[in-house]
Amino acid sequence: MLASFAPAIVIYSAQFLVIRGMHALEDTRRPAMIQLLITGLQILTAVAAGVFLPAEWVVAGLAASFGFAYTIGLAVSLRALRRATGTPALRALGAAYTRWILAAGPAAAAASLLAGLVLEQWGTEAPNTAVALVCALIVFTAGYGAIVSLMTTD
Questions:
Q1: What confidence tens digit (pLDDT) does each residue in 15-29 have?
Q2: Which of 83, 78, 145, 136 is nearest to 111 (CA)?
Q3: Pairs from 64-67 (Cβ < 8 Å, separation ≥ 24)
Q4: Are 103 and 151 in contact (CB under 8 A)?
Q5: Which of 30, 68, 78, 107 gives 20 to 30 Å between its CA and that of 114?
């Protein structure tokens, strides 16, 4: 289930880099306001996930709430940075991150599926959980790398 956070981490890193760009322009008010928006969205969607989802899907719901909040934050941040700089190069950044997010989804799904199969077959004791985690890490890394290389046009 933790693999479901993978796409959200890509979005989080993109949003963090855009915010750093605002800080480089000595704009600290706008990033703080955007972070308040992100935090509010995370709280609302995380509470909704906890209330409305079955217990076995709460972690996936939290991952979705994290990803949703940071996606909105990234869109707002990019718009604010584009207004401040007028730089059309942000399109290339957006295209690159879109590829990375699209690559993270299937890789995370494959890693989660493998980890679930390992735990289902071997049980959830600590050594088996460690094996499942290592297997999932290998599958995610290989899958992500392969998908990104297929999507790169260079």
A1: 988 888 888 888 889
A2: 136
A3: 64/4, 64/8, 65/41, 66/5, 66/8, 66/12, 66/42, 67/5, 67/7, 67/8, 67/11
A4: yes
A5: 68
